[in-house]
Amino acid sequence: MSSIPQTMSSQKDDFPIKVILVENEDFVVVNFLKKFGQKLHIKVFNNSDECLRFVKNTYPPDAIIIGRNLGGIKFLDTIRNESWTKSLPVIITSDVVTPGLIKEVIEKKGDDIYPKDFSTGDLVTRLEYFVKRRHYVATQQAKTNMLEVKIPFWKRFIDVTSTGFAILLLSPLLLIVAILIKLDSKGPIVYKSKRVGAGYKIFEIYKFRTMRTDADQLIKNMESLNMYTKGTTEKKVDGLCEECTLVGSCQQKLYLDGEETCEKVYLNKKKEKVAFMKFQNDPRITKLGRFLRNSSIDELPQLFNIFLGDMSLIGNRPLPLYEAEKLTTDDYIERFAGPGGLTGLWQVTKRGKGKKDMTEQERIELDIEYARNFSFKYDLKIFFMTFPALLQSENV
Question: What is the pLDDT along the chain (396 residues), one digit of tens a residue?
Fold first, then answer.
C-alpha cells in the first residue's frame, strides 16, 4: 500500500504511462523494466540535473521516480519552486521507508514514497491515478480558458419538443433494432462511453452497439489504418534514426514496452499521431452494425442525450476523452465553446461524414467556425443539409 493517501480513484489508461526514472545503477533499471516495462514508457537519467534539463525543455511526463540517495528531497524542493513543474508528480524511493522520511516527503510536497525494490504498494495503480488527475486539471483549465456555453432558449425548446416527439414516434423501430442487436451478437444493446461536449462538460453518450465487445482492445493494433494518420517522415534502420545509424548505436535511449528504442524515432512517431480516429472497412464492426452505421440508425439513442440536455440536435460532435484532451491548447479550445450536437457543420460539408479528403485540421476549423457563428438560421441550414448526408457512400 502506498504511504501517502490519494484523494481520487484510479482510472486505467489504454496507453503506456510516461515515467522518468532517475537511477544510476543499471541492475535496478533492468529489474524495473522486467516488473513494469510492458505498462510503462520509461526514460532513464543518471542524475537529477539531467532530469531537470530534460523536463524543462520537453513535454512533461506523467511522473518522475527518483531515489532519496540521488538527492530526491533536494530535487523536490527545486521542482516545486518552479511554476512549470510545481504540479509534476514525483515519487521518492528509499532503501528503508521510515515514518520520519514519510513526514519529510509530505512536507516537501512529494506525491508518494516507495521502497527501492517496489516490494510493497501498487505502483501502476498510483501512476494511473496521476494520469486521471492530470486529465482533471486539463478539464478545469479548459473550463477556465473559455466562456460558459449558454444554450439559447429557442435551441433548447426545439431540442426538447423535437426529440420528445421523435422518441414516441420511433419507439417501435427502437424496439426492433434492440431485438436484432441482441440476436446478432453477444453484448449489450446500447453502447455507452464518456464524451466531452460544450464547455468541456463530460457525459455518457448513447449509441446502438455496432462493434464487437472487444473493440476497445483491438484499436491499439489498428493505428496504421487510421484515415487521419499522417505520413511517416523519419527513416530508420533497426529501430534507429538516421543520425544514430551513422554512429552504429543509439545516442538517445528510451525504454518503451520493456524494450530499448531511439527517442528521436519515438518523438517523430508521436508528432505523426492525430487526435481523431476513423477507419475504412473497420473489422471491429458487426454485420448488423455496418447497416446501422450506414443508415445512421445507430445514432438514434442519442435522442435521449438531447432530450436530457447533454447535447443538442445541431452542434459540434462530442469527443472521447482521449481526443478532447489533445484539443485543449489555445489554438483548438474554442471548438468546445459551441453546443455539442448530433450533427454539425463538418458532417454536412461536401467533404463530410469522414471522407478521405477531410483532414483533422479542416474538421477542427469547421468546429471552431460553428462555435463562433451558430444561430437559428445557421442551425436550420445545417439541419436541411443533414438529410442528403445520412446515407454514406463509404464504409467509415
Answer: 344 444 333 334 445 788 888 887 766 666 777 777 667 788 888 888 888 888 776 666 888 998 888 888 888 888 888 766 777 889 998 888 888 888 888 888 888 888 888 887 788 888 888 888 877 766 666 555 555 778 899 999 999 999 999 999 999 999 999 999 998 888 889 988 889 888 888 889 999 998 876 655 555 554 544 444 544 444 444 555 666 666 666 656 555 444 556 666 666 655 544 444 444 556 668 888 889 988 889 989 999 999 999 999 999 999 887 677 777 666 777 888 888 998 888 888 754 444 556 677 788 888 888 888 888 988 998 888 876 655 554 444
CA dihedral 41, 46, 48, 54 (to 10 degrees): -50
Beta-carbon contacts of 199 under 8 Å, excluding residues fewer than 6 positions away, are: 143, 146, 148, 149, 336, 337
Length of the chain: 396
Q: Which of 338, 369, 377 is nearest to 154 (CA)?
A: 377
Non-local (6+) Cβ contacts of 120 within 8 A are 1, 114
Domains of the chain: 17-143 (3.40.50.2300), 148-218+275-389 (no CATH), 230-272 (no CATH)
* Residue appearing with cell numbers 432530450: 307
Query: Smallest Cα–Cα separation from 255: which of 53, 47, 37?
Result: 37
Neighbours of 172 (CB within 10 A): 8
Q: Torsion over CA of 18, 22, 25 and 29, rounded to 10 degrees?
A: -10
Output DSSP code: residue 147: P
Strands 190-196 and 202-208: antiparallel
Cα dihedral 19, 24, 30, 32 sign: negative
DSSP 169-182: HHHHHHHHHHHHHH
